[in-house]
Design brief:
Number of strands: 12
Structural class: alpha+beta
Number of helices: 13
Order of helices and strands: HHEHEEHEEHEEEHEHEHHHHEEHH
Mean pLDDT: 82
Strand order of the largest sheet: 2-3-8-5-7-6
Largest sheet: 6 strands, mixed, barrel
Radius of gyration: 31 Å
Length: 400
């Protein structure tokens, strides 16, 4: 009976009810779109740097990321790679060797980071080949060719085909030195400017690391599975070997992302307050217009609890209509922009180039606005409900 009376009361003032529900739908949609756009943007960034550099999961010797060391290597990488690739979510697994060296060409020298990659497996986990500006990919394993970052190429004034002398420390304690031919110059990028890349076979011979690697980089079909699959892989690796998802490898970025998400909470609170004010206005106006009615109900024996719950149910009905409409509108808007995206001129940030932003249909894009509108509506409905429950017949009869 209370539900039926409450439903009927909402449509006494159709225009006011419609405007309140419309404001709820609008607030819900704005919050949902904001969350979906934010999560979609993070997804693009994570996928971009995962494919450019980190992968979704990395496997390396204990503390290698914090304290890199030439001697912290993983042995028998081939068997481990074959085992990891059996997981259905794994797109690719590639070994890498990391070192540093002194590059010399003619009378100029410069220090650089050295990354050695498997010429076939690296294509499965990164966009390194796509980042070539001039030249070509490695001709073959063991060719003693290098891909040179833009800044290094500019400093040394090298061209395609130039032979660069590289001096580095070998894993056997010797000083390694040899000539490498420039096969490609990479595009300008924060990832590559002070990097050179050589093939794994050449690096193994040059650095005396035959059959060993410093890390394995794993690319998954979905970055959101990183944590779960990393936990699974911990049972497959040798002792004193770390399995780290991308957010442990890129700690600083992850901290910044979490801080940015906390900043978005302010926007959601503001939208929630706007919606709450609209609901409060509707419920208060309804209470003032029906004060005599509540007094009569009290006079004929209606209990305060029934009146209290009548107001609460009316508020929840408004909330239900608003959330239902918001779910429908926000789903279609988020779905549209998850396919078509918001396009703009190229922007480069931290070596990642953006040309569009995509939304996502992540459940949180619908859960967050639902929770905020539900909580804010219930909160602001309490005051009018308590006032209505406390009204006395004498006080109500004096009301205009």
């Amino acid at each position: 009976m209370l539900f039926k009376i409450s439903f009927r009361n909402l449509f006494r003032q159709k225009r006011r009810t419609f405007l309140t529900v419309f404001m709820m739908i609008l607030g819900f949609t704005l919050m949902s779109f904001s969350v979906a756009l934010s999560e979609g943007g993070y997804g693009i960034i994570i996928q971009s740097f995962a494919k450019a550099k980190t992968g979704h999961i990395q496997i390396y010797k204990e503390n290698f990321i914090d304290v890199p060391n030439l001697y912290k290597t993983i042995n028998n990488t081939k068997d481990l790679i074959d085992k990891l690739k059996q997981h259905k979510s794994v797109v690719g697994v590639a070994p890498r060797i990391l070192s540093g060296g002194l590059l010399s060409f003619k009378e100029t020298s410069v220090g650089a980071s050295i990354t050695a990659v498997d010429i076939n497996k690296e294509k499965e986990v990164s966009t390194l080949e796509d980042r070539i500006d001039q030249g070509r990919w490695f001709k073959s394993a063991g060719s003693f060719e290098i891909l040179v970052g833009k800044n290094i190429a500019s400093i040394l004034e090298v061209k395609l085909g130039s032979k660069i002398a590289i001096i580095a420390q070998g894993a056997d304690g010797s000083i390694s030195n040899d000539y490498f031919t420039v096969s490609a110059i990479l595009k300008e990028s924060a990832f590559d400017n002070f990097q050179i890349y050589m093939d794994l076979k050449s690096a193994s011979e040059f650095l005396a690391l035959e059959g060993r690697a410093h890390k394995l980089v794993i690319l998954l079909d979905n970055y959101e599975k990183s944590k779960m699959i990393a936990e699974v892989f911990k049972n497959d690796v040798p002792k004193k070997v770390t399995v780290a998802p991308w957010f442990e490898v890129e700690k600083e970025f992850y901290k910044g992302m979490q801080a940015d998400k906390k900043g978005n909470v302010i926007l959601y609170i503001i939208l929630g307050i706007v919606v709450a004010i609209g609901v409060l206005n509707t419920i208060l106006m309804s209470f003032l217009e029906r004060k005599r009615e509540f007094g009569i109900l009290k006079a004929i024996g209606t209990g305060p609890k029934n009146i209290f719950w009548q107001i609460i149910i009316e508020s929840m009905l408004l909330c239900f209509f608003g959330i239902f409409g918001g779910l429908i509108s926000s789903y279609f808007i988020n779905w549209h922009f998850s396919i078509n995206g918001i396009k703009f001129d190229k922007i480069e940030f931290g070596g990642i180039v953006f040309e569009e932003l995509l939304t996502t249909l992540d459940p949180m894009a619908f859960i967050i606005p639902t929770a905020i509108i539900l909580f804010s509506t219930l909160l602001v409905a309490l005051y009018p409900a308590i006032m209505a429950a406390r009204v006395t017949p004498i006080e109500a009869m004096r009301a205009n």
